[in-house]
Design brief:
The protein has 502 residues and is an alpha/beta fold. 34% of the residues lie in helices and 21% in strands. It has two domains: 145 residues, NAD(P)-binding Rossmann-like Domain (Rossmann fold), CATH 3.40.50; 284 residues, 2-Layer Sandwich (Dihydrodipicolinate Reductase, domain 2).
Length: 502
């Protein structure tokens, strides 16, 4: 079999020139994620030529101060800064307030910059601001004429919206409606950084570019599926956001839902963003709705004081910025069912939590046991069924476990794992998740972004659960406490144990 990679023949070699306008440029996300991602693309020669970056926020700074502020933050890091000055020559800064006049001035400034730098009127607007400003900025951009695409040749306008996209179905619908007042769906890029992870993208390739898995990828052969995003860290300094979000909004509505749909979706009729999004939407539509009679299908938890690696850890309620009687869940286990032909009655266990013993992100496909009693007669009941793991963290890997006979005269079976780890087979510079989504936005490719209907369907599924958990009289009964550094609350342990190897 040839070992040379087969690459996307459609990939444009040359990106169109553009300006990236970052709102919230004095904030943490810009300095921690966006600028390093853009810089890493620059040093790998993946940025368009020419390009400009315009940082906007309320802080008063000039171009030089902006460049210096960013550089100061990187001096202590391991970032290779040899080409920083060359990159920084493309960095500009405009103080802005969120009103009409300020956005009209910004429009004039961008037109002038276009003339000077030949970026041809192509613009990406990245909203790295608190979610309450998404609609405000989209409206002001629209009113200033910045959402309009010019038809003669160049001049596209794209908007990148970070998560959280809404906080429930109603607010997501409203936000979509506001964006659509000025931007067409093709101009909107709703980020989910999980989609940019290599193994997550590989899930579709693994399933649909190999013919051996698809015939057994269904209820006849699969016992259950697990989607796990366990985190070792606690809420850190993000309590302000997390208190109004909790694990269901923070991880389930977006990241876990994407992992679920990639595992469960039907093959799209072709590999284009729209065909893939159509199939994803069908899966979310087929999720069996939660109802209070089926309440046993969800378990919520919150970490209390505990310890990990011998270090004492405070409980969630003692974290800075958290209400002392907070009922915000930091852990959830959901058992969900997809009511379609392929998945009828196969449980999908979705698990995510903070302050668990270690960080682990993976999809577990547990196959059914062999149908006959052939080996049971000899070996008893403990025959392990095959398991396939698509791991995103700590390794980007795919592992398949199967039984082997150990050498010798007696019949002993032992599970062995066939392992494929990205880092062992693919060396060289890789793009981080943020760089990947920015690059796709520059190319106008929507494959790694949420489409309007997907977002709304996902909220529609989650809404009744959120209502139940938040408005319900029995919230304190729903919430189980677990000591930090353990695998979640007691009622969830058995299921968690099914999905972990230890
Ligand atoms: C973010 C959540 O979207 O994803 C965080 O807001 C979470 O709470 C993070 O820690 C996890 O991402 P990753 O890539 O570290 O698994």
């Amino acid at each position: 079999m040839p070992s040379q990679p087969i690459c996307d023949l459609r990939t444009a070699d040359v990106l169109e020139p553009c300006t990236i306008v970052i709102f919230g440029a004095s904030g943490d996300l810009t300095s921690r994620k966006l600028i390093p991602a853009l810089y890493s693309m620059f040093i790998q020669d993946r940025m368009p030529t020419p390009f400009t970056i315009v940082g906007c926020s309320r802080t008063n700074m000039n171009d030089e101060e902006f460049r210096e502020k960013l550089l100061a933050g990187y001096r202590e890091t391991e970032m290779d800064l040899t080409r920083w000055h060359e990159f920084a020559a493309n960095l500009h800064y405009r103080p802005i307030i969120y009103d009409t006049a300020s956005f009209q001035q910004l429009a004039a400034y961008l037109r002038q910059l276009d003339q000077e730098t030949q970026t041809k009127g192509n613009r990406i607007f990245d909203l790295s601001v608190p979610p309450r400003l998404y609609a405000v900025i989209a409206t002001l951009l629209g009113q200033a004429g910045l959402a309009e695409e010019q038809n003669h040749g160049n001049g596209w306008a794209r908007i990148i919206v970070e998560k959280p996209f809404g906080r429930d179905l109603q607010s997501a619908i409203e936000l979509n409606a506001t964006l659509h007042q000025y931007f067409q769906e093709e101009q909107i890029f709703r980020i989910d950084h999980y989609l940019a992870k290599e193994t997550v993208q590989n899930t579709l390739i693994f399933r649909f570019a190999n013919s051996i898995f698809e015939p057994i990828w269904n209820r006849n052969h699969i016992d259950f599926v697990g989607v796990v995003a366990a985190e070792e860290l606690g809420v850190g300094s993000r309590a302000g956001y997390y208190e109004t979000s909790g694990v269901l909004r923070d991880m389930f509505q977006n990241h876990l839902m994407q992992l679920l749909v990639l595992t469960a979706m039907e093959p799209p009729w072709n590999f284009t963003a729209d065909a893939v999004q159509d199939e994803k939407a069908k899966v979310i539509r087929s999720l069996r709705q939660f109802s209070s009679e089926q309440g046993s299908r969800i378990c919520l938890g919150q970490y209390s004081a505990g310890s990990n690696h011998g270090e004492p850890l405070i409980g969630y309620r003692s974290e800075q910025g958290v209400k002392p009687d907070s009922l915000t869940p930091t852990f959830a286990l959901m058992e969900v069912y997809i009511d379609n032909w392929r998945w009828h009655n196969v449980p999908f266990y979705l698990i995510s939590g903070k302050r668990l013993p270690r960080k682990e992100t993976k999809i577990v496909i547990q196959f059914k046991e062999v149908p006959t009693r052939l080996f049971r007669e000899i070996l008893g009941e403990t025959i392990h069924a095959n398991r396939l793991i698509i791991e995103t963290y700590p390794d980007e890997a795919i592992r398949l476990t199967f039984l082997t006979k150990t050498p010798g005269t007696s019949i002993c079976l032992r599970p062995m794992t066939m392992d494929f780890a990205y880092r062992e087979h693919y060396k060289g510079a890789t793009l981080d998740a943020y760089a990947r989504v920015l690059l796709d936005c520059m190319e106008g490719d929507h494959m790694l972004f949420w489409r309007e209907d997907g977002i709304e369907l996902s909220w529609a599924f989650l809404d009744p659960i959120l209502r139940e958990c938040e408005e319900c009289r029995a919230n304190d009964q729903h919430l189980h406490f677990y000591p930090a550094g353990t695998w979640g609350p007691e009622p969830a342990r058995k299921t968690v144990g099914l999905l972990l190897d230890d």
